[in-house]
Fold:
Amino acid sequence: MIRDLIKKADLILLAVLLIAGLAASFALARSGTGGGQVTIKSAGKKIGTYSLKENRTLLITKDGHIFDCDGTDSQGETGYNILQIRDGKADMISADCHNHDCVNHRPISKDGENIICLPHKIVIQIEKEKGDDGYDSLAK
Amino acid sequence: MTRSQNSPARRVATLALLTTLALMFSYIESLLPAPGPPGVKLGIANIVVVIVLYRLAAPEAAAVNLLRVALAGLLFTGLFGALYSAAGACLSLIGMILLKKTKLFSMVGVSMAGGVLHNLGQLFVAALLVEETAVFYYFPLLLFSGIASGILTGLIAALVSSKLPRDLL
Structure:
């Protein structure tokens, strides 16, 4: 029964896929050390960069504007995300997108980690601090 | 095979029934709470697609899956949901049809590849829509979840298919 269900080629394919997945997660984990600043992108365009060391709460609008806010209200904006930077972590604490995948995402702090709000085309990404060029420091 | 079993009317009715079944699976899944990160899901509709691919043929499987995606888009997943699913469905169909043609893989292996490719297709659309390669951060997670859901739906498809009467499909 089991022999008909699963063939040798299936197991080889499974092994290949598992290795590919492990290699990819290993590569991502290696690149994900440290991290110093939060980059905010709207529809692929960089609209702001903030240090992870300073606590602040930001209101990001769908059309690409960022305001400081106290984190409780949307200041009358529709199509917004509220990002909280606290204790070296960035967390999307509120948004009026329809699926709330971004709000449900855990806080991020490591280089390369990101929170993406697909409905609003907003990407929050952790990057190395300015002046610490990622490629050069890798080559050292 | 009697003549009536080969008739176009019977073919259309069978495919309509199977498309409805796949659509119902999609609907049931959309009612379940999301098991985790975006994109991770069971994909139980793939059970129908894999069975159709093996019991009927590739064009029928493609028709059932693409119609399911279009109808689900109109009914509950919405335009963007349908766009993601369509990319996933196309990639997964191509992969499954090719793998089946090699005759080296069982339904489980074919379904596993389908699960992985479906997730990859969605990832590509996400990267295009957000204009951001950062979404590939989800690659390993979606790969593993595609493997798991593909194996599960493949096992179910193999078991169900072995119990289906020969003249049903």
Remarks:
- The mean pLDDT of chain A is 83.
